[in-house]
Amino acid sequence: MLTDEFQEVYSSDRDLNYNNLDEFPVSVRALRHLKELGFHSNNIRSIPEEAFVGNPALIAIHFYDNPIQIVGKSAFRHLPELRTLTLNGASLITEFPDLTGTTSLESLTLTGAQITSLPDTVCDQLPSLQILDLSYNQLKDLPRFTSCEKLQKIDLHHNEICEIQMGTFQQLVALRSLDLAWNKISVIHANAFSSVPSLNKLDLSSNLLSSFPITGLYGLTHLKLTGNNALQSSISSENFPELKVIELPYAYQCCAFGSCDSYYKIQNQWNKAENSSADEFQRKDISIFHSHDEHDFEDFLLDFDEDLKIHHSVQCSPSPGPLKPCDYLFGSWLIRVGVWTIVALTFICNVLVAVTIFRFPLFMSSVKMLIGLLALVNTLMGVSSSVLAGVDALTFGVFAHYGASWESGAGCHFTGLLSIFASEASIFLLTLAALERWFCVKHTTKFEIKPTFGSLRIAIFFCFALALITAMIPLLSGSDYGVTPLCVPLPFGKPAALGYMVALVLLNSLCFLVMTIAYTKLYCSLDKGEVDNTLDCSMVKHIALLLFTNCILYCPVAILSFSSLLNLTFISPEVIKPILLLIVPLPACLNPLLYILFNPHFKEDLASLQKQTFVWNASKHASLVSVNSDDAEKQSCDSTQALVTFTSPGLSYDIAPTNSLVPSSYRMNENCNLTSVKFVPCH
């Protein structure tokens, strides 16, 4: 209850904020000269009938952060002088209050409630309304605001509006600002804004728009369309001659506004333009504000806006850049030639390695099978790079017209999935090959039985499954393949993408660490003489060479990810682009190339392949190598083939004569010079 002393002291303005009021204080009715009343942060749940019947002089009523759920139908009647009514955070109100009699109301704020519809007579009740804020409600349909001729600002963001009809905002000649962000708007009539000539700020961000009407919007100075991912068409700058600030869903759409070479960032441009505070003019002499009247101050604001227009004709975001190009996907001929070279070598070398290895599947050793699978996986990486090269060629010079559709399309997502799968499968297979060489040499020197092909096949299946799961994660989480037209998750921007890339780098670093430990233990555990014999094994040396090469090439990717994690900005987009296009797919090209150039097995396999081709052309009906294991054993016996047997009966190597079509790399599974062997004839 309000005491008489309180009423006498405070007669014009009331501040009942933070008083833990549980009920509306009906004593305020006795304050006939009360002009402003505030109830900020109380526990008032209802506004009773005729709550302000004794306050005809009220100009402003503010209810901030009260759990109001009931508003009496006559609560705000008989307030002819009321100009401002604020019900902010009234989370339990479900119906629009009756405002009959408040014909002078100019500003109405009713936010955070559960209002689903507005009465068709809302403008008839409020003919003087200038500011309407109904954000954070559950509005689905809008009435015609035609009778609200004085409306200057409408805020309807965070509702559930699905459609803007033709007559919704017709004849609102004074409307300057319209906020429809964070709704579900998918359809806007082509003439919905045709009769709002004063509109200069329009916010339609985070909706479901696939098209945008331009009729009647020639006077716009601020436009927001971010978050409408289906809106991929270009927006011409000629349709908005007065535009100063625009925010679009894709950076490619900013190319039409001359932003190709502008990398400045727009920070709160919308809010700065909307709230023309004195902070923007602190650089000017403070005396200017005191020596000019209101009319001169408005002229100064217009001059200042003209200066902004001269220096920054249109500020468009997000800005294009090396990772969001306007003209060319690759950007430079150096990158373009490098990518095509890598693609050509990747296909030629990997196909050649795969053909020479898999032509004799029954005579293939475990390490050769891993090298062959590695070649097939590297070919997939070549496919991914070739797709990007094809997109660059097909959109040469006009990439901005297709960038949005490519970036958000299934083709980009599939390309990114293929790239990550191939990269991870390559590292996992290389790790498995290093472990296989370590186990092989370890068991051979100790005359023990090697791991079987069955266990190796299980390990290979696990590698491919893990690589596929790793590649599928961006499609199921917040890190998306369509972040850039290069179709790879980038270690900056969304926290999910950064976390994914850092986790990927840690996983791959663990694989390289396991490979390094395995080979270090391999060399350290052997005696000097054994080292000499072991180092003659070409496959052991080849896997070590692959380990070193792939680890060195992965370092730039790791540095890129950890620099983003530590917020280090020394790596620019101009550097990131060649890393993603040239360094990442380079192992897929070098792995088979190293096998072709430095591994003697390839020369033997290639010579045997050429000889096999010649004999096959000479005699089509003669089979060079029988697929049946019994036939192979019989043929080797007839050719006086020897069986090399170690002291442990589980270890054996097949040696064929030098004139056999099967190369020595297949006849001896472990091409190592070891001691303690004896030859026994074939029975």
UniProtKB/TrEMBL annotation:
An example molecular function term from Gene Ontology annotations: protein-hormone receptor activity
GO BP annotations, alphabetical order: adenylate cyclase-activating G protein-coupled receptor signaling pathway; positive regulation of canonical Wnt signaling pathway
Annotated Gene Ontology cellular component terms: plasma membrane
Cited InterPro entries: GPCR_Rhodpsn, GPCR_Rhodpsn_7TM, Gphrmn_rcpt_fam, Leu-rich_rpt, Leu-rich_rpt_typical-subtyp, LRR_dom_sf
Keywords on record: Cell membrane, Disulfide bond, G-protein coupled receptor, Glycoprotein, Leucine-rich repeat, Membrane, Receptor, Repeat, Signal, Transducer, Transmembrane, Transmembrane helix
Gene3D superfamilies hit by this protein: Rhodopsin 7-helix transmembrane proteins (1.20.1070.10), Ribonuclease Inhibitor (3.80.10.10)
Main location (coarse class): membrane
Residues annotated as transmembrane: 333-358, 370-402, 414-435, 456-477, 497-522, 543-566, 578-598
Membrane-topology descriptor: Multi-pass membrane protein
Family matches, as Pfam families: 7tm_1 (PF00001), LRR_1 (PF00560), LRR_8 (PF13855)
Residue ranges occupied by any G-protein coupled receptors family 1 profile domain in the UniProt entry: 349-595
Entry's localization field: Cell membrane
Protein name: G-protein coupled receptors family 1 profile domain-containing protein
Organism from which the protein derives: Phrynocephalus forsythii
